[in-house]
Amino acid sequence: xxxxxxTQWRIGIIGGSGLYAMPGLRNAEWxxxxxxxxxxxxxxxxxSLHGVELVFLPRHGRGHVVAPGALNARANIDALKxxxxxxxxxxxxxxSLREELPxxxxxxxxxxxDRTAGRPSSFFGTGMVAHVSMADPVCPxxxxxxxxxxxxxxxxxxxxxxxxxxxxxxxxxxxxxxMYRAWGADVIGMTALPEAxxxxxxxxxxxxxxxVTDYDCWREETEAVEVDAVIARMAENAEIARGAVxxxxxxxxxxxxxSPIDTVLDKALITDPACRDPAVLARLDAVMRRVNGGx
Length: 295
Fold this sequence. Notes:
The protein has six helices and eleven strands. By secondary structure, the protein is an alpha/beta fold. Strands 1, 2, 3, 4, 5, 6, 7, 8, 9, 10 and 11 form an eleven-stranded mixed beta sheet that branches. α1 crosses α4 and α2 crosses α5. The chain is globular and about 60 Å long. The model has no long low-confidence stretch (mean pLDDT about 95).
């Protein structure tokens, strides 16, 4: 387990395999990380870019072999924590629920609506109970830097938007798509939850750049969503996404100032220390490392 130095940036990047062909990535090495929550989606690729340490995790595994509902989000976030990450930048394909968010546009998400089912969404439970605040589910500092990075890379970006997380793997029905629009959702995807919730529990500031690949099926004059069109748009967006990661890293301040998210568990843990289950605490060795004096 890598001890986290929170004054130095070590950015975890979750996204598709196209992101990892980063020109200039030095000392690149794939590393397997074991977690108490099972195997992550894949090994992580560590390296440095412009002097900043990065840890890349293919969300669906190399070759896109893991379905959205089968993602082991707890293992993925735990692995990034064990790798010493200080922050997470997630990049994900999304569908648009708004006319003003056309395919090709990028959206820096700031809110979520959860429509997933049956996905483990917390590291905590019986034996060690915690309740973190998710009122503002992303890190404003990272999100602002992410928006600026997309612009610097030549992308059209909207800063702020509500992401509807659906279970999948099927795309929406038209009735569902219209309902999500009525709820106030702006974009739709299958992977950001419980990822964002778990990052918060692990005291990892999290930002999400969504790449609009299609209009969801609410738009009657547009063909229904098909995966081949999504893949084609993802390929078109990949160069800008890589450029955004590069610009994001270049813009990081030399020293990482503390974030309130770094210590969120101080106000979240509720189980009396004398009543905490040792077996549960053992699984939380990475998530609760700072609380237990490990950082």
